[in-house]
């Protein structure tokens, strides 16, 4: 589905991480699809990863990896040029690729990072990028169709899910989407809290004239969210970075992480921008 309207209020700069994989190529197509109506600049980064014990690597091996990284970026540039999207390419060499990706996101003040995912494996680099990103991160599974006919916001009433809900409502308003507001109680005694959580989002959606439906259910949160998204043919899932159980400095909220790993739908991890 072609996107004719920019889905987010400010999307001047997109950062795309590529390793030449099928997932990365798919993510490139998604980046182009979003960048076109938003008139965004795409910053494409590839990291020639070498372990911390780089002295064991021959100079030839490092040059080979850098050459491969350049080839990955050349392919991205070819795709963006064809779509008439402005693209700047960035190569780094070293250990811990996620640090270079985060550094470039901060340096270039990007508004969105896009990551591809194949199967149920996001990969350690992807997880660390999401965990440390200074902006929203879109994770798109290979083959998933990004569309805005129907979008889902998962809420647990935390401040993080409220931030995500505000973004979901804004996007739904732009596209005249139907908004599914979902809260999952792990135990029966938590259902009243879940009902209050969806009520808050529903009231906010009503104030903006967004048509919405609330769903409260009991069970394993990530399984229920993924199941509801599949049954309702949702085009995009919005989730907060953390849940109400508190913040773990170096780890994603477990529900968000599991939804990302198992969803056949694109997931937007919403973070309050800190730069």
Automatic annotation (TrEMBL):
InterPro entries: Rossmann-like_a/b/a_fold, Universal_stress_UspA, UspA
Domain UspA: 12-141, 148-271
Pfam families in UniProt: Usp (PF00582)
SUPFAM superfamilies: Adenine nucleotide alpha hydrolases-like
Recorded family membership: Belongs to the universal stress protein A family.
Name listed for the protein in its UniProt record: Universal stress protein
Organism: Thermodesulfobacterium geofontis
Upper lineage: Bacteria, Pseudomonadati, Thermodesulfobacteriota, Thermodesulfobacteria, Thermodesulfobacteriales
